[in-house]
Amino acid sequence: MEPYAEILLELEEKTEKTVKHLREQLSSIRTGRASPALVDTVRVDYYGTPTPLNQVAHISVPEPRQLMIKPFDASPPVIKEIERALLKSDLGLTPQSDGKLLRLIMPPLSGEQRQKLVHKVKELVEQNRVALRNERRDANKHAEQLKKDGGLTEDQLKDSHDEIDKALKAADKRLDELLQAKSKEILEE
């Protein structure tokens, strides 16, 4: 086992977290279709406690452009709080309530809205690329410190830099794949 294996393992964990974080961020971006993931970030004031919406209600997709939110506790105060939380969220959708459940209807996106969403996706991917580069920098510093302390030879340091770059390229490729997939999803009619 190489002396820098621990550095690579730590880098792999961090890059995995970054990719997972981006995936979560992208799931909350609206496309032309309804998805329960759209409301994952919505927090409801449930009896004084900010609670994720999916913990106070069942969320389903009865139609491609509609989300149905059925609270576990269908009392009027809970429904009002869910409605308030949805209105405050950055979804830009107005819930329709019948007293027992709420519906979110996704209007079709215009071409301009789609382009804005693709631009937002690109910005999120770029922010996560910056995080990846910071993780690479930290891993390289750690390897250089290990060499200073006598734990690595010059060749091992070069190998560690190569392995770190290879790991970063793999993570960057995954970010690109997420970008392409989400952009395609947004641009589809």
List the helices and strands and how they pair.
Elements: H1 5-27, E1 43-46, E2 49-52, E3 57-63, E4 66-71, H2 76-88, E5 96-97, E6 102-105, H3 111-148, H4 154-187
Antiparallel strand pairs: 1-2, 3-4, 4-6, 5-6
Outline of the structure:
This protein is of the alpha+beta class and 189 residues long. The chain has helices spanning 5-27, 76-88, 111-148, 154-187; strands at residues 43-46, 49-52, 57-63, 66-71, 96-97, 102-105. The chain starts with a helix and ends with a helix.
Descriptive notes:
It is a single chain. The protein is of the alpha+beta class and about 190 residues long. The chain has two domains: about 5-25 and about 110-185, Ribosome-recycling factor (Topoisomerase I, Chain A, domain 4, Orthogonal Bundle); about 35-105, Gyrase A, domain 2 (2-Layer Sandwich). The chain is built from four helices and six strands. The strands form two sheets. A four-stranded antiparallel sheet has the order 3-4-6-5. A two-stranded antiparallel sheet has the order 1-2. Strand 1 and strand 2 (about 50) form a beta hairpin. Helix 1 (about 5-25) packs parallel to helix 4. The protein starts with a helix and ends with a helix. The relative contact order is 0.18.
